[in-house]
Design goal:
alpha/beta, Rossmann fold, 3 domains, 49% helix
Length: 317
Amino acid sequence: MTIPAPAGASALAAPLTSVEALVDGLGSVGYIASRRIATALYMAVNLQKPILVEGTAGVGKTELALSTAKLLGLPLIRMQCYEGLDEAKSLYEWKYGKQLLYTQILKDRMGERLADALTMHEAMDRLHGMGDLFYSEPFLEPRPLMQALRHDEGCVLLIDEIDKSDEAFEAFLLEILSAYQVSIPELGTVVAKTPPIVFLTSNNVRDLGDALKRRCLHLHIPLPDAELEQRIVATRVPGIEQSLNEQLVSFVQALRTIDLRKSPSISETVDWARALILLHADSLNADLVHETLNVLLKFEQDIAAVEPQISQLLQPA
């Protein structure tokens, strides 16, 4: 059953007629999506719900948002989260330099402006009117969240690594995530004409609040099985020989069975495949793996733990 596209989203209709069409569409822009991923995205877009994408680093959470924007031909607005992120950096701030410049200009004309004021009350009223001008649209500097709400034709909003922000910022996001609007004291309520497609990503650095999770559809992207990972590598590294693809994916899958500080993710697999192509490799051997193991593993203690097992890990490959 096809759910009608949201209002203002006619341009999105073609790739979103079905889950299968979305799988094919994402594949056409280089993102190999499982049916579970495509189903979650299909529901998020058509139900106008933000989607919270969780999983270990490097499994394709951010890439899903980038690929969706590319597929649908929408602008991407990305906000990287960090500890201490606040309203001024995420929503809007005032152009203080411009305000100061205009203050200097008005200062020279203030005497003329107030010369015919008959009472102090009248003079103060005129000054208040001048003050209001400095908190109007020409002095506003929109940040990512407001930019997303103001895209009349819609956009993709990526709130990346939301788990790195604090609980106060989570609470601030709730109005935007539930109603696609935000209240600004000086300007009133800004409501999105076309709700953005919102992705929030999390590496599970900390637990997110229930209020935020209630407003989002949830998607967990696990590490892929061997078949899916081979398809991803083949898409991301055009020209790789099938035999080499199978060998390197088999080796990476075996690595993930070892207790490591950080197991290689999809991004490391792709990087390793590119490195092997760069070195003109057509098959794996112990020496080649030893020389390039630092592409897969990011901690020296992991490399030291794996090196004695390279020959054994290569046997399935």
